[in-house]
Amino acid sequence: MSQQVAAKKRYGQNFISDGNLINKILNLLGEEKNSLVIEIGPGTGALTTKLVKRFAKVIAIEIDQEMETILKEKISDENFELIIADVLEIDLRELIGKQIQQFDHLYLISNTPYYITGEILFKTLHLNDILTKAVFMLQKEVALRLCAGVNENNYNNLSIACAFFAQTKYEFMVNKKMFRPIPKVDSAVVSLTFHTRYLDQVVDKWRFLDFVRTLFNNRRKTILNNLTRVVNNKTKAAEILTQSGVDWQLRPENLTLENYLGIFNLTILK
Fold it and tell me: Could you read off the pLDDT of 55-72 as tens digits, one per residue?
């Protein structure tokens, strides 16, 4: 079916039909039947048809109105709900609502268009308290950034934000030739398994992530320079770093998540 449908560039559409790849992605969500799955961008339903067979309920969100007929013809299962809308305009928490109480797990899965990758990732992080796991197909470069560790070139505030809420894992690369039409770059699949281990270490998790993003704004500057911009006082910034046990001359990519937690907590106290 996907071969008969023209992908729309404005929606960043690239279809997958390879059964082995689809099964490989599906298996990352496990076998827990009593689960609610949110699928962003089902396209022609190659993965969706398998999701509805494995899980108790699937809600698919698709922006392309032309896909509505295709999906409804292909999937008639009672546990399938299709929403034709822009996911960025949907309050996912409101959509999930009280029905989450009926299920043991909540999963989110997305073949993510490059042009809204950041927005979808942060919408997902805002569901950290109810999500069990999220699986994303991303451009390979973005996937590496999301899963990067301290001192790696791709390490940035997105890496830290994801690690704050979840165990991130670079699952596997997907060659661009497996898509139709063929995109310019390879993709990769990553997973986020959500945890709560850092949540009680900050008074405001979103303020913390804003703080980290600010410190990465000038990533080639030293952490002393960047923190000085935040607290407007170089002496104060130096005191905070000393108390945190952080070398003033390090750059943002040289600091661990734990370093940032320590710096943030001392900053809001001073």
Answer: 999 999 998 888 899 899
Under 8 Å between Cβ of 147 and 169? yes
Q: What is the DSSP letter of 64?
A: -
**Whole-number Cα distances in Å, 209 to 63, 75, 227:** 29, 40, 14
Helix (H) or strand (E) holding 122: helix 117-125
Asked whether the bond before 252 is cis by omega within 30 degrees of 0, the reply is: no
Using DSSP bridges, classify how beta strands 15-16 and 179-180 pair: parallel, antiparallel or unpaired: antiparallel
Share the mean pLDDT of the chain. Answer: 92
Q: Tell me the percentage of the chain whose pLDDT exceeds 70.
A: 94
Residue 167 has pLDDT above 60, yes or no: yes
User: pTM score, two decimals?
Assistant: 0.92
Give the amino acid at 238. Answer: A
Judge whether 45 and 70 are in contact, CB under 8 Å: yes
Structure token digits, residue 9 = 């560039």
Contact yes or no for 43/13 (Cβ under 8 A): yes
- Whole-angstrom distance, CA of residue 162 vs CA of residue 183: 26
Find where tokens 């992080």 sit.
125
Q: Is pLDDT above 90 for 179?
A: no
Could you tell me if 238 and 179 are in contact, meaning their C-beta atoms sit under 8 angstroms apart? no
- Element holding 188 (H helix, E strand): strand 187-194
